[in-house]
Amino acid sequence: MWEACKQSVIDEIRGLPGWCSPEKAALMMDLVNEHRLRTCVDVGAFGGSSCLPLAEAVKYRGEGTLYAIDAWRVETAVDGWDRGTVDYRWWSALDFESLYTGFQELLVRRELTERCFVMRMHSRKAATRFAERSIHFIHLDGNHHENAFMADVQAFYPKVRDGGLLLINDANWPCMRRGLVFLLERTRVLSPFSPSAPFLLLARDIAREQRAASLVKA
Question: Hey, is 65 helix, strand or coil?
Fold first, then answer.
């Protein structure tokens, strides 16, 4: 049953807007199922390709919630990018209302509305809705501008519980480097990225975090 569930998700995401690979989808689903992760967060829901694996996994387990976060607005997507750049032109040309409608239809069709709570708002506003150390798993895949990613990291990191998991997409992109330096000082690397799997799996480590803080004070 579990393998059939995963295959159904992998088949579905091939036709969804987004960039979630079959490898990442299977990893996220196995993490939720094996570690009984209950409070899961996806920052950058977009067309649902990364939300679907997480939502289906919590549905399969019969417990937990996926919080799907995305503003689905042009001004949020292009924040930080200079006009005329490739990133600005690409994101500003998207029809975000159609993406949002398609995402909602996906949740209804897959019967996921009871397990997926949609938060249509800026990611940092959404972060304020979570208690400290309450998140079991978070997938960070929002705006990739250096400043935006760093702000997301700083907003959500305190919300992750000790030992909680963080999956960083496109970890090999130069614009992610500053945020990753912050995280790597405070987490354990569970799965390093590779050319075929450019995402990084980390676990929050309070002891490591405290050592990093003491070094800064020194």
Answer: strand
Q: What kind and span of H or E run contains 216?
A: helix 206-217
Q: Tell me which amino acid residue 13 is.
A: I
pLDDT in tens, 44-91: 999 999 999 999 999 999 999 999 999 999 999 999 999 999 999 999
Distances (CA, A) of 30 to 3, 13, 23, 82, 151: 10, 16, 11, 39, 28
Alpha-helix runs per DSSP H in 93-191: 96-109, 123-127, 146-156, 177-184
- CA max distance for the chain: 55
Contact 158, 204 (CB under 8 A): no
User: Is pTM, for the whole model, over 0.85?
Assistant: yes
To 10 degrees, what angle do helices 51-61 and 22-35 make? 30
Structural domains of the chain, with CATH: 2-217 (3.40.50.150)
Rg (CA), the chain: 17
